[in-house]
């Protein structure tokens, strides 16, 4: 009895220790989500990108399939034959090496033959179609990889923009909460004055209306934050209801974009859309050469090692072999080669037109990114001045209101103007950050890899979201 008692006491302690360890690791794993982490999760889990990865794998398999045409085809075969056809009787009994010269071929009887062997076919020349098929598939792979990279960059842009929407929503919430506190305090003071007979009921009602407006703005800002968070986690492939904490992060703290001409040159050199469009042009040109190769001869080597018997008594001394070199030269194909060539040339012209359009679109993307950045900078400067003037105006009006020389309506107008200026300043600030993202992606500044966008700039802080 005494020997078993310590075991019963240790078991609950063991469970408590295990639970404590698990709780420690669970809490340690719940670290705030930073912006680089969000981008990394998006590139790993986003369904659209996963589908694009499978498309790239398919394109790679097409390249391998095209290369397989250079290799010989080798296979085993077996055949069981029973017939009374004179030609089959003659050739098969000869291959069996059991031919009877006195056979009556008008009535040879029933033939039974079991044949098995090894066959080999190897293309020696087919008008260059094998080389063209490899080039065609490689161009297709390059175009597919370019589309995948373009999707990666688009997703990175969406994640960063949604991240800044979250940060701006938090700023709007702070402004709205401060407005609610300010108006609430004034409403409490006005209520006391109204009960004491020193304030009008219209002033009290004006404060209540203003408080309702402030609460409505707070509600809209909170809802905007929830919508942005839902959009972020949907991009991460985790679903809009995923609970998590977000860290404060900004990858563009001290980064400034290159001059416009330099950024444009960089974009024209590195943008994946241009590389993809050029790959499509190359693929279309290969298609033209492939269509023309329909007039070229085809040379093929074939070999066979086999044995025949009327049963299963196959022996090595009765084995047969053959090696053949065959050439086919098409003389007339009903103008199908010419039709295929015209079709391929039309596709080549279409691909070249698309390449030119892509160049124009890249130029427009870069131009728009720089123009929006310049606009955001100027808007932010104007908004900063408006905030400063709004703060000063509210301070003066507040003094006048407390001294009795300004009405409550004038005070509420000044408070509303100040808050509206602060909201415009916050919106312009984060629009400026979004414009920086657009420039970095439009100019292919981060073209060394999707994650290198953050390697170019200071690492974001990890202050947890309120």
TrEMBL record:
InterPro entries for this protein: OMP_efflux (IPR003423), TolC-like (IPR051906)
Keywords, comma-separated and alphabetical: Cell outer membrane, Coiled coil, Membrane, Signal, Transmembrane, Transmembrane beta strand, Transport
Q: Which Pfam families match?
A: OEP
Q: Where does the UniProt annotation place the signal sequence?
A: 1-30
Residue spans making up a coiled coil are 204-231
Quick check: keyword Metal-binding in the entry?
Answer: no
Tell me yes or no: is Ribosomal protein among this UniProt entry's keywords.
no
**Subcellular location(s) per record:** Cell outer membrane
Family annotation (Gene3D superfamilies): Outer membrane efflux proteins (OEP)
What family classification does the UniProt entry report for this protein? Belongs to the outer membrane factor (OMF) (TC 1.B.17) family.
Protein's recorded name: Multidrug resistance protein
């Amino acid at each position: 009895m005494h020997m078993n008692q310590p075991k019963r006491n240790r078991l609950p302690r063991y469970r408590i220790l295990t639970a404590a360890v698990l709780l420690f690791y669970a809490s340690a794993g719940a670290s705030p989500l930073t912006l680089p982490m969000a981008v990394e999760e998006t590139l790993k889990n986003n369904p659209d990108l996963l589908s694009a990865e499978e498309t790239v794998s398919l394109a790679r398999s097409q390249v391998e399939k095209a290369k397989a045409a250079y290799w010989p085809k080798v296979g085993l075969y077996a055949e069981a034959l029973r017939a009374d056809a004179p030609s089959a009787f003659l050739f098969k009994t000869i291959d069996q090496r059991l031919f009877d010269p006195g056979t009556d071929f008008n009535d040879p009887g029933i033939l039974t033959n079991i044949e098995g062997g090894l066959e080999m076919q190897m293309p020696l020349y087919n008008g260059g179609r094998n080389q063209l098929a490899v080039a065609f598939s490689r161009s297709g792979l390059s175009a597919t990889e370019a589309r995948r990279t373009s999707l990666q960059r688009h997703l990175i842009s969406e994640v960063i923009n949604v991240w800044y929407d979250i940060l701006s929503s938090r700023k709007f919430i702070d402004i709205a909460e401060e407005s609610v506190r300010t108006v609430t305090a004034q409403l409490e003071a006005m209520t006391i004055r109204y009960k004491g007979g020193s304030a009008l009921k219209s002033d009290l009602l004006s404060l209540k209306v203003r408080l309702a407006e402030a609460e409505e703005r707070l509600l809209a800002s909170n809802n905007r934050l929830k919508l942005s968070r839902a959009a972020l986690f949907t991009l991460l492939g985790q679903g809009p209801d995923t609970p998590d904490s977000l860290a404060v992060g900004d990858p563009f703290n001290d980064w400034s974009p290159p001059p416009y001409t330099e950024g444009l040159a960089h974009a024209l050199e590195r943008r994946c859309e241009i590389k993809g469009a050029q790959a499509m042009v190359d693929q279309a040109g290969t298609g033209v050469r492939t269509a023309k190769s329909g007039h070229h001869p085809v040379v093929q080597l074939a070999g066979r090692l086999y044995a025949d018997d009327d049963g299963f008594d196959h022996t090595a001394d009765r084995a047969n072999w053959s090696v053949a070199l065959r050439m086919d030269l098409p003389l007339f194909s009903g103008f199908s080669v010419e039709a295929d060539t015209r079709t391929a040339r039309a596709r080549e012209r279409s691909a070249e037109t698309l390449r030119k359009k892509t160049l124009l679109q890249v130029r427009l993307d870069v131009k728009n990114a720089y123009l929006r950045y310049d606009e955001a900078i100027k808007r932010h400067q104007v908004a900063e001045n408006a905030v400063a003037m709004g703060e000063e105006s509210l301070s003066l009006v507040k003094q006048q209101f407390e001294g009795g020389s300004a009405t409550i309506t004038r005070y509420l107008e000044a408070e509303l103007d100040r808050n509206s200026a602060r909201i415009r300043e916050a919106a312009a600030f984060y629009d400026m950050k979004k414009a920086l993202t657009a420039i970095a992606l439009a100019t292919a500044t981060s073209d060394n890899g999707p994650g290198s966008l953050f390697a170019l700039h200071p690492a974001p802080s990890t202050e947890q979201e309120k």
